[in-house]
Amino acid sequence: DQQVKQNSPSLSVQEGRISILNCDYTNSMFDYFLWYKKYPAEGPTFLISISSIKDKNEDGRFTVFLNKSAKHLSLHIVPSQPGDSAVYFCAASGGNQFYFGTGTSLTVIP
Amino acid sequence: NAGVMQNPRHLVRRRGQEARLRCSPMKGHSHVYWYRQLPEEGLKFMVYLQKENIIDESGMPKERFSAEFPKEGPSILRIQQVVRGDSAAYFCASSVLDSSYNEQFFGPGTRLTVL
Questions:
Q1: Exposure class string for A9-45: b at 16+ Cβ within 10 A, else e
Q2: Which residue among A65, A66, A104, B19 has its CA within the 20 to 30 Å range from the CA of B9?
Q3: Cis peptide before B8 (omega within 30 of 0)
Q4: Which residue of A lies nearest to B5 if distances are taken between CA atoms?
Q5: Which of A41, A46, A89 sits opposite B42 (nearest CB)?
Q6: Residue B15 burial (10 A CB sphere; 0-12, 13-18, 19+)
Q7: Which of A36, A46, A99 sits opposite B45 (nearest CB)?
Q8: pLDDT tens column, B15-28
Q9: pLDDT tens digit string along B69-78?
Q10: What is the pLDDT of residue A70?
Q11: CB atoms within 10 A of CB B81
Q12: Could you give phi then psi for residue A82, rounded to 5 degrees?
């Protein structure tokens, strides 16, 4: 039972344009959401987070939006850079456990 | 401050053997989490431990898998009598406090291959 879903396995974007990665969740008890970035042969690294009391959190080129009524969050990267090419996982937590999506592989084309 | 360390990075075992995966959390972190990533899948929670305590093992298979986080030394994930389906990347993560509103820092993972 996949409680966090990333329906797009891959995404290609031109350098300088906006990348939008989407994530849906099913459990309304989740109150903390994170995005992780993962390069091949490395562990995930934390990117940005948002708690359920907010609907937007911004950190440099990265912005996470949370729509609680739709149980949807998205990560915007603007402008996209070739170094952003990686697999992005969204994660949600309502307690001890983090539930991860299956990841979206982002390719930024120079 | 060294990050989360995992060893070995790659482990090859034959069916029926035991696999031991080690995780040293970041300095000052007393909370450890183990995840498994099967091919083409996301990270799946296995177990959450604090020093000498298993807090949540709801993601652990009921048989052959065990985990510990002793007072001294690394956390160990042990898989007995491995089968081909155990082949996966195993990641551990640590945090200063429990998961609520705290990011987890991940190690580089151990890739287990069962022949």
A1: eebebeeeeebbbbbbbeeeebbbbbbbbbeeeebbe
A2: A104
A3: yes
A4: A43
A5: A89
A6: exposed
A7: A99
A8: 999 999 999 999 88
A9: 998 899 999 9
A10: 96
A11: 13
A12: -55, -35
Min Cα distance A58 → chain B (Å) is 16
Q: Please report where in the chains the tokens 């300088």 appear, as a residue.
A: A16
Q: What is the largest CA-CA distance in chain B?
A: 40
CB B106 within 8 A of CB B24: no
Residues of chain B whose beta carbon is less than 8 angstroms from a beta carbon of chain A are: 4, 6, 33, 35, 40-45, 48, 55-56, 58-59, 91, 93, 98-101, 103-109
Contact A64, A56 (CB under 8 A): yes
Give the residue among B34, B30, B41 at the shortest CA–CA distance from B97: B30
Tokens of B7: 């060893």
The DSSP call for residue A42 is: S
User: How far, in Å, CA of A31 to CA of A68, rounded?
Assistant: 9
